Amino acid sequence: MDKTLACLIDEIIQAHHEYLRQELPSILELLNKMVKLEGERQPKWNALKAVFIQFFIETNTHLTQEENLLFPMIRKIEEPISIVDLGQVQALVAILEKEHETLDALMIEMATLTKEIRVNQTGSSNAQIIFDKLHQLEIDMEIHAHKEDHVLFPQALSRSRKSNF
Ligand SMILES: [Fe+2]
Ligand SMILES: [Fe+2]
């Protein structure tokens, strides 16, 4: 049997939103340390931190929009008598999909900078933890965006279309 949309939303929040809320501050803390230690010798750490902060801010806004606006609307679709504003769902989905693209572009920028830093960075366990955490973040973001872009959003749109007839 197909998962309910509410169930999928709970899973996304627990597996991915919680992960981001826990990991992003901890990565930022590590980057702050690294910039203090190595920023002068290796200015790319400063560039990486700047892109990461932008990613952090954009992600916070994005999660809030999903949890406070779109997800409650999607949960309503499954209620026995549901009146959902299809236009509103479509507009929000379009905004959030665009934000996924922005976040993806920032992830690519971070991956490029990380690669450049790696070449000149030796023997720092702190740096290695950051590289590992950013790699994990990239994998998680891919799964997270896939669940929303290819499963949750299309199903929500198709069911809200039906509930409007
Ligand atoms: Fe999400
Ligand atoms: Fe999202």
User: Briefly, what CATH class?
Assistant: Mainly Alpha
Multimeric status of the protein:
single chain
Overall number of domains:
1
Distance from N terminus to C terminus (CA atoms, Å) equals: 24 Å
Mean pLDDT: 93
**Approximately how much beta-strand content do the residues carry?**
under 5%
> What's the order of the H and E elements?
HHHH
| Helix-residue proportion | over 70%
Query: How many alpha or pi helices?
Result: 4
Q: Supply Rg.
A: 19 Å
Low-confidence stretches: none
Structural classification:
mainly alpha
Q: What is the CATH topology descriptor?
A: Four Helix Bundle (Hemerythrin (Met), subunit A)
Number of strands: 0
Biggest pleated sheet: none
Query: What characteristic shape results from the CA principal axes?
Result: elongated
Query: Which ligands are bound?
Result: fe (ii) ion
CATH architecture: Up-down Bundle
InterPro entries: Hemerythrin-like (IPR012312), RIC_family (IPR019903)
Domain Hemerythrin-like: 9-156
Keywords: Cytoplasm, Iron, Metal-binding
GO molecular function, one term: metal ion binding
